[in-house]
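1st attempt posting a full record on here, be nice pls
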Amino acid sequence: MGGMRRGIWTIGGMSAAAMLVAGCVATPSLSGTMGAPSLTALQQMCGESAQPVDYGNDAQSVYSTLYDAYVAKRRGKVSADEYCGFQSAIAQHYTALGTSRDPQIRNRWVQFFNEQRAKAVSWRAAVDPTLRAG
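the predicted structure (as tokens):
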């Protein structure tokens, strides 16, 4: 029985450690953090007059994607024009497809967005060694 208790404590301790590590590498808050602009600030980088898009339940995923693209822009992998075009395409597709209650239309948004997410991660990985294997 003592061995079983040790096993439970070890598993519990490992789970707690994993949660702490996961918390350290989590995406910054939508409202921004020290060194990470908010979702609204990221959207306004392409023009102060631009009305920020309300991404609803997709906001955190969109923020992660825009933030990765922003890091790539800040480090010179992506130009300001590329970043703004990327951001604009996401906003346009979300407005046209992502707000639909029709599952087939919504799936088109999900497919498009996943492609954009992969692109943003690729851009960031090219300039951020913490995202590269090795």
